[in-house]
Amino acid sequence: MIDFVRNVRLWFAPEQVREEGSTPDYRFSLANERTFLAWLRTSLALIGGGFAVDQFLPDLRWGWRVGLALALLTAGVLCSLRAVNHWVRCERAMRRGEDLPTSRFPALLGVVVAVVAVAMVVVVLAGWEG
User: Fold this and answer.
1) Residue range 15-37: average pLDDT?
2) Residue 98 above 60 pLDDT?
3) Helix crossing, 105-126 with 62-96: angle to 10°?
4) I need a surface site. Which of 10, 64, 89, 100 has the fewest CB within 10 A?
């Protein structure tokens, strides 16, 4: 838990990451940044999907519409928070010469998106009006 709190502080003071270890090859830092940006694009897509479900499916039963929209919005929020945390963890590991951190988050995100997709298939097959 203490390491997580330290990582959260580094989100807002990334220059402090430079104090640890040695500077890695800049290509690795840039690759880490590109991965961070890819996660942010994913989170924006999920958030956009959540708003789209809520706004463009007014005939869908309220419970389905809100449930699907909230699942997508929550996944987008978690994805964006995970992106910055993972960026800091990877940058610190590269500077220290450690193995890159592993995470179950990609699998969890994949399962959430798959569940929402299956629910959307059910909605389409069953029709929008309940």
Assistant:
1) 91
2) yes
3) 160
4) 100
Cα 70 to chain center, whole Å?
A: 15
Residue 74 to residue 69: CA distance in whole angstroms: 8
**Stated length of the chain:** 130
In this prediction, residue 129 carries a pLDDT of 56
- Structural tokens at position 18: 């430079």
Bigger pLDDT: 4 or 42? Answer: 42
42, 108, 70, 37: which is closest to 29 by C-alpha? Answer: 37
Rounded to an integer, the average pLDDT of 41-47 is 96
Say what the pTM is: 0.83
Cα(90)–Cα(98) distance, rounded to whole angstroms? Answer: 9
The string of DSSP codes covering 24-58 is PPHHHHHHHHHHHHHHHHHHHHHHHHHHHHHHH-T
Q: Are 7 and 85 in contact (CB under 8 A)?
A: yes
Give the DSSP letter of residue 13: -
**Alpha helices (H) in the chain, listed in sequence order:** 2-11, 26-56, 62-96, 105-126
